[in-house]
Amino acid sequence: MIGRVASIARHTFKEAVRDKVLYNLIVFALLLIGAAILFSTISVGIQKIIVLDLGLSSISVFGLIMAIFIGIGLMAKEIERRTIYHVLSKPVRRFEFVMGKYLGLLLTLLINTAIMTAGFYAALFYQTRRFTVEDFAPLATIYFILLQFAIVVSLAMFFSTFSTPVLSAVFTFSVYVIGHFLSEMKWLGQTSGSSVVKGAAAALYYLLPNFSNFDFITETAHGEKISGLLLTANSLYAVLYVTILLSATILIFEARELK
Amino acid sequence: MLAVETTNLTKDYAIGFWRKKPKRVLDGLSLRVERGEIFGLLGPNGAGKTTTLKILLRLIFPTSGSAEILGRGIEDVATHRRIGYLPENPSFYDHLTAEEFLHYTGDLFGLAAPETRRRTARLLDRVGLADSRNIQLRKFSKGMLQRVGLAQALINEPELVFLDEPMSGLDPLGRREVRDLILELKEKGITVFFSTHILSDAEMLCDRVAILNRGRMQGCGELREMLALGVSSTEILLEAPDDLLLDRLKSYGTVVRTGARVCLQVPKEADVTPALDLLLKSGSRIVSVIPVKMSLEDYFLAQVALGTPARPETESLSPNEGGHQG
Fold this sequence. Notes:
The structure holds two protein chains of two kinds. Chain A contains eleven helices and no strands. Chain A has helices spanning about 1-15, 20-40, 45-80, 85-90, 95-130, 140-160, 165-180, 180-190, 195-205, 215-220, 230-255.
């Protein structure tokens, strides 16, 4: 089983890295990180904040586009182009296919994020000319960004199992955006007089992934550190959420007819 | 142990947007495929051939009925280790080269890397793609994809191969090569189960065939028996008989003039000897006596017509040409 999952993961990674669109996104991300240096030169006194803020935001935004793009693209494409017939006619169980696909996509995002992180630190070094221990604090923020990607990819795969690629992209992006405003939504529900609004807001709050808990870019830019407790809590939250989503994906995919 | 056995295999699809209605695409299919034989599943487009194969490969699920492959229920995906499958109009990963694709396929079967490499080289050579092994599949023609599809179906050295329209998209030379390959598989004791609507291929290759139309089986059996079906008429070719003799011959069958020659078509076997006696006594010159056998096409058309009361034309029936959709 592990061999087949690893084989599908390796193949998914290979498919992703042979896609030219992915390289374009990385180049754009690196250009934007580089541009942070330019913006910082016209921001007297807050140069480092600008580099940190813009650099981390670039990693987050471009990584998100990649996560949605490859998450949906590589899953839906298998079904749409019927290449999945090839895999499932082999001694591969459907859950092995889903797991292999997910791990391959995650590996792709991990390596892309590593490349963008290297670009980010190059920009930071250009700005500060030296590294201190504190300069490695943004790594925790990048780790949180990566956890968001892990959830986003599982969301994209989940939607791809029963929806068209375009709708899956819309659903995934919508959940990502709403997931950043869940605290506000909960507050809205609590202050609302309507029990329906209250119930709907509470349902969404508990059902959708709370991405705002993972967003520490502004805080990091201003020198705030992420506590060990938050690191652990967010890691567990992401693992739990991804597990639930992948289980749902597998359940739907097991019953799906590949006409 | 049978290679394939299906019992009352039935498949309904829900069609419609809001009020879904079931549409039966496969209706109580029961068939048995012996090990080592070449079995052809024949039928016009939409007959249920691809549906049958997809159910057997667990890509879709039957509404009712059951099926076994190599003695095990189709639910047991582990059996796939012993089978090969070429989908209809195969679409493979176009970012991979032919060699990489076969390596990936070998990986999925859990073959060791050196063994996969050895089999890849042999199979690419066998299907005539040795020179194209480093070319990405996106640059392959339809015929080349069909060949690489055949290669991937054989990389695990299967006991049973399912081929869905294997001749589709191939030129005459390619079709000949695939026919040779199928016969080679049979020689090695491998069971070949293939669907086609190219009747000439089936006639040349199959030990037994099943004919499907609109999801129902119209006939199944040994091709020899079906076609021994025998002689549907006898054609006697004569050289310039006189008109008096021609009038007498008309009582045995139809007379057709072709230039200086005349062809007498005798539908009843019992009339052949009296007709020949008459001709010999009259001193006519007999050019040839040819028993006209029923072709698979004739048989197929008759069976399909039986199962198609409201559709006189058999739209996609093609004795020679490629096409798709079972």
